[in-house]
Amino acid sequence: MERAKALVLLSGGLDSMLAARVLMEQGVEVVGITFISNFFGATNGLAAAKQLGIPLIAYNIAVEHLAMVKNPRYGYGKNMNPCIDCHSMMLAEAKQIMEGKEVVLFYPDGSIKAIAAVYDFIATGEVLGQRPMSQTKPSLKIVAKFSGLNEKLVRPLSAKLLDLTEAEKTGKINREGLLDINGRGRSRQVELAKQYGLANYPSPAGGCLLTVPDFGVKLKEMFKYWPDCNGKDVELLKQGRQFWLGKEDNKTLVVVGRDEKDNEKLLKLKGASDLILKLIDEVGPIVLVRSKKLEFRSKNEKQEILVPEKISSEKIILEKIESEKEIIDMASMLTGFYAKKLVGKTVNVEITT
């Protein structure tokens, strides 16, 4: 019989690595696929593929994914993580690749090649009962149906507890070689990792920002103030300190860098209509100002300002800062306030567009 080919969703976590390894034990030709969005990247997937010795597809779904996160059909989990919708989207994208869409493969030896191949099925590292919202039997069925994969979706770690798939019925894989892991415990996975020699893997859910409570609060706030926000806007939430100025229907975002890395990132994220503020004679943060409604006039100027000993970040105070001058004054004060030892001193701030 011709060797079966599987496309395995490879987040880089232990479960997805084990799913790939279980299939490899049956002689299945495995290719990994990891996804890129504003909330997770390909780093862990690439490391996992290298450890497994398999090629990997790193596929960017950032635009479609952000649109889904704003309005998920099946809602959010504990934080801003719409896991059912997210898994369904990834699998629907993987389905197109499974059916022959051309993509770029990264091989363990460092080579890169664009190919269009057809795969027999798609597999994931999902474990029945591991997550209360997205990995119950009904949820797993929803994902299989919503993605359009139905019986072409295999969950090797819990397969014996789930319905037969097409790959099992046709003899592409042997059900007896699949597993019956259930629940939130990790002991069986850890034991299997030792058995397969898998030593390096991140903690569960460690790769997705949508599961991080503090980031979820920031993102929810951005969706409220800027419902049409794009990926470049979301990237600002990962940098420094954020301050929202003005009333709810006309919010301006001010981001203050915490360190040199933040400063460099903010300069790279600057849009054509953003303002950048920095101290002229002192070392301090880069401050980026972005508005969706205010159009800042082209600037290349300096401003002298007294750095206050205290700045209120209370919402009721920040909401009163609306005009271009008020916003620039506040941003200038923040530039000095978050520099070292400049409180109570007069500083010069450069403001550019």
TrEMBL record:
Gene Ontology molecular-function annotations: ATP binding; CCA tRNA nucleotidyltransferase activity
Record keywords, A-Z: ATP-binding, Nucleotide-binding
Keyword ATP-binding: yes
Domain Thil AANH: 5-157
Alphabetical list of InterPro entries matching this protein: Rossmann-like_a/b/a_fold, ThiI_AANH
UniProt-listed SUPFAM superfamilies: Adenine nucleotide alpha hydrolases-like (SSF52402)
Keyword ATP-binding attached: yes
Name used for this protein in its record: Thil AANH domain-containing protein
Source organism per UniProt: Candidatus Falkowbacteria bacterium GW2011_GWF2_39_8
